[in-house]
Design a protein that fits this description.
Blueprint: H1 11-31, E1 34-36, E2 39-44, E3 47-53, E4 70-78, E5 81-89, H2 92-105, E6 109-124, E7 130-143, E8 148-156, E9 168-176
Antiparallel strand pairs: 1-2, 2-3, 3-4, 4-5, 5-9, 6-7, 7-8, 8-9
């Protein structure tokens, strides 16, 4: 008959595990971290932060225009700076022009405009297959007395992730105080 060994845990190991779990809970509470189903927020060492899945971070400025025909993919913010990603229905060229106009109508000065451009990239896969991917992108900077917003947008003719659906392109905006840029 094979030799059977009973596995036992020492009381010292259980106590150490309990202390670790307790310490993590105290640390999270002391740092002011709040975790929810769709995001996280808190204060660690005086640095406030928030992040959300499918939502804008808490404190996101209401005077920063959001793109039309868009859904929020994710957003994050820390100490007065914010980042947000959107999936937008339509074509990049029309979306870029509409979003630039929206900022101008809100009193922002729009500069550094990189008009939509398209690049074709080809590659070879296994078994001598060839793939042609079309990439289209545009960018601009919008600034008023309160915020500077860097806008980057683009699309791909090939699926690059699960967040963008057919007929959508991505927009990422970074929002900071103009004084933070030097």
């Amino acid at each position: 008959m094979p030799n059977a060994r009973a596995v036992t845990r020492s009381p010292g190991r259980r106590a150490t595990a309990a202390l670790c779990v307790g310490a993590i809970g105290v640390l999270a509470t002391a740092c002011g971290i709040h975790i929810s189903k769709n995001g996280i927020s808190g204060d660690i060492g005086g640095h406030k932060f928030s992040a959300a899945i499918h939502g804008l971070p808490s404190g996101f400025p209401t005077n920063v225009p959001l793109p039309d025909n868009a859904r929020v993919i994710a957003g994050a913010g820390t100490n007065g700076g914010y980042d947000a990603a959107f999936a937008v229905s339509g074509a990049v060229a029309a979306g870029a022009q509409a979003y630039e106009s929206k900022f101008q109508s809100a009193g922002y000065t729009v500069t550094n405009i990189s008009a939509p451009s398209t690049t074709e990239v080809s590659g070879s896969g296994q078994k001598s297959t060839s793939t042609m991917v079309t990439l289209t992108g545009a960018s601009f900077t919008a600034k008023n007395s309160t915020w500077m917003v860097q806008v980057e947008m683009g699309s791909s003719s090939s699926a690059v992730g699960s967040e963008l659906k057919t007929g959508e392109f991505g927009i990422n905006i970074t929002v900071v105080s103009p004084s933070a840029t030097g």
